[in-house]
Design goal:
About 75% of the residues lie in helices and about 0% in strands. It is mostly helical. The protein has a two-stranded antiparallel ribbon. α2 runs parallel beside α4, α3 runs antiparallel to α8 and α5 packs antiparallel against α10. It is globular.
Amino acid sequence: MIILLTSVIGLGLIYGLVALGVYLTFRVINFPDLSVDGSFPLGAATVATCIMHGVDPVLSTVFAVIAGMLAGCVTGCLHVYLRIMGLLAGILTMTALYSVNIRIMGRPNVALLDMATVFPSHASELWILLGIVLAIIIALMFFLASHAGLALRAVGANPLMSRTYGVHIGKMKILALSLSNGLVALAGALFAEMQGFADVSLGTGTIVIGLASIMLGEAITGVRNIKIDLIGCLIGSLLYRSAIAFALNSSIFGLQASDLNAITAGLVVLALVIPRLLGSLPKRVRIRG
């Protein structure tokens, strides 16, 4: 039970980074970025390959973040400079990254057993992950309240008005995509270091997991506020992993690991529907009164 709880919290913290990255694109600049499905295994592939070649684990993790940011930059450039639709630009980058990740690792998967990572011991994993996630949430709060952050938020809220005030919409989108994919790649790197392996198929469903975490966080917090939303991403991720663990480890439902995607889809639907039902309830009461 303790091992399961530790695993749930650890994965919840890691995918909290994914949720934060997805939040920057889907909520802040209103950009449907599917390239994160490729950025997650990119981070894992980069850190695994670097560690295998004797690079310091911390430096390897930094390289993974840089690789993810470059992937996000590619998506942004395809959209901004080549005028490719945002959704398609993300799909193209995600598709290309599948081959890139195999090239980086030299094979479909790499094991990191008995290799040095950023985690000195299993006992320190959760504390290190918690410190990283909280530091990033605080950094994002300050960034989104800065001049550049406000410009970024303005691009998502009203692009035409932003252009009127001299904001370069294209550069802001590239910045957001780079930061988003950098965070997702960081999550992939930490996942590989915690689980002890990197695989080219790790990114399958990453975008759905990120969206599910965001939706669950928003359903819990209720209030739309940047600071609350960022914290909500972490809460939603922890709830998501808890719900998945409960569903897969409960004999009542009879679910298997292969049902993971169906469970995720169901959680997203619930997160979308429940707030609407709760929001309509007071209106019905007032009408009846």
